[in-house]
Amino acid sequence: MSTKAQDVAFDQLLVDRFKSGDASAFDEMVSRYWARIYAMVHQLLRNPQDAEEVTQDAFIRAHRGLVNFRGESAFSTWLYQIATNLARNRYWYWWRRKRDKTVSFDQPVGDDTTMPLSEVFAAEAAAPDDEAVTQEFVDRIAFGMEKLNAKHREILILRNMKNLSYEEIAEILRISVGTVKSRIARARESLRAKMGEDFK
Fold it and tell me: 84: exposed, middle or buried (C-beta count within 10 Å: 0-12, 13-18, 19+)?
């Protein structure tokens, strides 16, 4: 059994325990997923305080909705879906208020790695001779990401930073796998265009 399959099976045990009245099962879910959900939301919103609030809200909603969770998708996928929708709503609320937005490309990609975001996009760019990422390159990525529309930025974060499969992204965003693939392709093309013609 793969690690992912083991995770799904263990999550289902926790769900079953919770539904049987074991409140401590939800505490275990929070312990398992808090850091992962927070990291994803923070990457989408780029603001620690708001990421904390959205993460809390995601778990509150999951707690309320878990009695109706039928297991048609993995618990983790369902939880990512809740968090992504909440982050999306928060993002558009900010956008309407013209809130100042910044991107840190020095932050680690995830909790279990020290690789910065800049290296993820450097790898995506296939930098010649594996040259060190220059500050200018990082700045151009940050500029390009800020100029992407929300759908394109969101899907690049899910694919490149969370390393989710096409199928997982399709479930989270409620779109087809084909749409996921074409949206990723368009997002990467758009990012290259916004960063400048010399981005290959």
Answer: buried
**How far, in Å, CA of 55 to CA of 53, rounded?**
5
In degrees and rounded to multiples of 5, residue 102 shows phi and psi of: -135, 155
User: Which amino acid is located at 87 in the chain?
Assistant: A
Domain residue ranges of the chain, discontinuous segments joined by +: 1-101, 104-200
- Residue found by looking up tokens 């999306």 in the block: 88
Please determine, looking at this structure, whether the domain spanning 1-101 carries the CATH number 1.10.1740.10. yes
* Paired strand residues for 108: 116
Return the closest-CA partner of residue 192 out of 127, 145, 154, 158: 145
Is 152 within 8 Å of 186 (Cβ atoms)?
Answer: yes
Cβ-contact 154, 116 below 8 angstroms: no
Mean per-residue pLDDT pooled into runs of 10, the chain (200 residues) = 89 95 93 92 85 91 92 91 88 54 49 53 41 57 79 86 86 92 89 65
